[in-house]
Amino acid sequence: MNESEIETPRGPARVRITEPEGKAVSRLVLGHGAGGGVDAPDLTAVHDAAIAAGVEVVLVTQPYRVAGRRAPAPAGQLDEAWTSVIRQLDVRKGPLIVGGRSSGARVACRTAADLNAAGVLALAFPLHPPGKPDRSRAGELPAGIPTLVLNGDRDAFGVPGPGGNVEVIVRPGATHDLRRDVKGTAEIAIAWMRTHGWAL
């Protein structure tokens, strides 16, 4: 595991890179939720399962969190910092899959096309603010790119519907934190990556 800081137009971001044994089949870059970090249980489970499946995993901590702030930066600034980090990574690691949980999933969805990502892994995609189903964010899901959304059936932020290349799998009994059966959630994510040839 290698941890470092990468300068972005929004300040330094922190990057933790873990290589699998042998040559990486693909690269999975994951971002965190609005008030959380890259050590959230679902991100940790996906990280560990991906490494075991021959995937290089990059965990990105946004500049506002590196600076010690809990309140997230505006969406445009999050996207700018995320895009800057990924463009500074070594490009010779096979297909790029972007993803994250909650706010990080939204960032990955919004920037996937611009980054030429092969796929998007969205954990706990927040379809709308709690109690405000009229404020849907479904338009952020990238219909033209293979996307897997994993949400709990008790998520107060709602669950998006499938469409285009967007596949939605609902985890029974799970809330927005996806803490229920994180190992199962990670296994579903890696199985999806396998079907596209992005994991062993």
Detailed description of the structure:
The two termini are 20 Å apart. The protein has a single domain, classed as Alpha/Beta hydrolase fold, catalytic domain (Rossmann fold). It is built from five helices and eight strands, in the order βββαβααβαβββα. It is α/β, with parallel strands linked by helices. Helix 1 crosses helix 5 and helix 3 packs across helix 4. Strand 3, helix 1 and strand 4 form a beta-alpha-beta unit.
What's the N-to-C terminus distance? Answer: 20 Å
Strand order of the largest sheet: 1-2-4-3-5-6-7-8
Could you name the CATH class?
Alpha Beta
Uncertain residue ranges: none
How many beta-strand elements? 8
Global structural class: alpha/beta
> Mind describing the biggest β-sheet?
8 strands, mixed
**Could you state the CATH homologous superfamily?**
Alpha/Beta hydrolase fold, catalytic domain
- Could you say how many structural domains there are in total? 1
Overall, the morphology is globular
Q: How many DSSP helices?
A: 5
Output the radius of gyration: 15 Å
Helix fraction, binned, reads: 25-40%
| SSE string, helices as H and strands as E | EEEHEHHEHEEEH
Average pLDDT number: 97
Beta-strand content bin: 25-35%
- The CATH topology is given as Rossmann fold
Overall CATH architecture: 3-Layer(aba) Sandwich
